[in-house]
Specification:
Order of helices and strands: HEEEEHHEH
Helix content: 40-55%
Strand order of the largest sheet: 3-2-1-4-5
Structural class: alpha+beta
Distance between the termini: 26 Å
Shape: globular
Largest sheet: 5 strands, mixed
Length: 96
């Protein structure tokens, strides 16, 4: 299992602590695997989700650290979204 995924899941749990995200989302990071976020928090998993966001490790590192705006990453083509776009936008506001 990737150290990056474990660290990112822990950081995402800190950001989600306010409980402002009420759907399910998968962050797919190339060959490393995926993180699923839902009402129970973030965890390394490849479970199904309402929306899947796909990007490379560098882009997700920037999003998790707050250095990269998820909307900007999407608009520049570094992040793709498959599924519920409204939920993706809600997640972007939680991560920003």
């Amino acid at each position: 299992m990737s150290d990056f995924l474990e660290k990112a899941a822990a950081e995402l749990n800190d950001k989600l602590a306010g409980g402002a995200f009420d759907g399910s989302a998968k962050l797919s990071v190339g060959d490393l695997g995926a993180i699923v976020l839902d009402a129970s928090g973030a965890r390394v998993s490849d479970d199904e989700a309402d929306v899947t966001l796909t990007a490379d490790q560098e882009t997700f590192e920037g999003i998790v650290s707050g250095e990269v705006n998820p909307t900007s990453a999407f608009m520049s083509g570094k992040l793709t979204v498959d599924g519920d776009m409204g939920l993706a936008m809600k997640l972007a506001s939680v991560l920003a």
